[in-house]
Amino acid sequence: MNQIREIAQLGAEVLRCQAQLVAEAHSAESRAVIAAMKATLANTQGVGLAAPQIGESLRIVIVASRPTPRYPDAPLMEPTVMINPSFETLSETTEKGWEGCLSIPGIRALVPRFKDIRVDYTDEQGHPVRIRLQDFIARVFQHEFDHLNGLVFLDRVENNRDIFSESEYLKLFS
């Protein structure tokens, strides 16, 4: 059975909704959504995915940092499913960094994000987890977390001049 789903694109209502809390982390519904998210993400060059991006308004994200043509310097991290995540900043230090989104292809932008955060979530087995994320992985988490609250990375851009087409972005680094 092909579990790969179409990725919702900017303008889809699901991307602008507050996602619902997951009542039971290991219910059949949750497992099916997570399986579809894993299959869909594995079929992309993305480093993370939120359930709303596959049309499911649920508070589930996957952070899966890995080097790809889109993010050649990304650190390697096993795909991590986070159910009902929350986070707090461990430092008020922010840094602008380049982001793109599977739901907004062809666009990159400089987005300010916190560099050092603590994340609480429930794992796939229903266990509570607390981890510290920093730098690029913290950025990926915050990007995916925004999707759970109806936000996309363009909502965080401080200046429209920080928005680039993918082709112009690639010229900067070639």
Give the overall pLDDT as a whole number.
Answer: 95
Low-confidence stretches: none
Q: Count the beta strands.
A: 8
Structural class: alpha+beta
* Sheet having the most strands: 5 strands, antiparallel
Q: Sketch the topology as an H/E string, one letter per element.
A: HEEEEEEEHEH
What fraction strand?
A: 25-35%
Measured between the Cα atoms of the first and last residue, the distance is 40 Å
Strand order within the widest sheet? Answer: 1-2-3-6-7
Approximate helicity band: 10-25%
What Rg, in angstroms, do the CA atoms define? 15 Å
Number of helices: 3
Structural features, described:
- This protein is α+β, with helices and mostly antiparallel strands and 174 residues long.
- The protein has three helices and eight strands, in the order αβββββββαβα.
- It has helices at 28-42, 135-148, 166-172, and strands at residues 48-50, 60-63, 80-89, 94-101, 104-114, 116-122, 128-134, 163-165.
- A five-stranded antiparallel beta sheet has the order 1-2-3-6-7. The chain has a three-stranded antiparallel beta sheet with strand order 4-5-8.
- β6 (116-122) and β7 (128-134) form a beta hairpin.
- The longest helix has 15 residues, at 28-42.
